[in-house]
Specification:
flat; about 140 residues; mainly alpha; 5 helices
Length: about 140
């Protein structure tokens, strides 16, 4: 991959990291619950739903931040844009669509096929023989 392209991605990741860290600070500052928000059951339920959504958002952003940090590490190691599975270059179009991608399209499709196959196998196994005979 060309150096200019890698620099562009590095700048993108650094901007994303900065935004995520700023957003995390705002979310955490806004995490406190006012006792006036818990006056009755409906207020309590609304507050609980809001808290749950904030937690989910924090978890999602923490996961994305981890991926951004890993991408920056791959840039430092000089392996950014290489497929973790086959070692071939990941297409630039794929990286532009999903900058934190670590697998080329072929390897990602293969991984998804395996995951889908395993999920179907677990579903049938968990539902028992009667389910698999009825829907097989």
């Amino acid at each position: 991959m060309r150096k200019e392209t890698v620099k562009r991605f590095k700048k993108l990741f650094e901007q994303e990291k900065s935004k995520l860290l700023f957003s995390d600070k705002i979310l955490r500052d806004d995490f406190s619950v006012n006792t006036d928000d818990r006056l009755d059951e409906i207020d309590q339920a609304t507050t609980d739903v809001e808290q749950s959504m904030r937690v989910r958002l924090c978890n999602r952003e923490a996961f994305y931040l981890k991926k951004v940090d890993e991408a920056l590490q791959r840039i430092e190691e000089g392996v950014f844009g290489e497929c973790d599975e086959c070692g071939e270059d990941i297409e630039l179009r794929r990286l532009e669509a999903r900058p934190t991608a670590t697998l080329c399209v072929s390897c990602k499709e293969e991984q998804e096929k395996k995951e889908n196959h395993m999920a179907i196998g677990r579903e049938l196994k968990n539902m028992g023989d009667s389910f698999s005979r009825r829907y097989a």
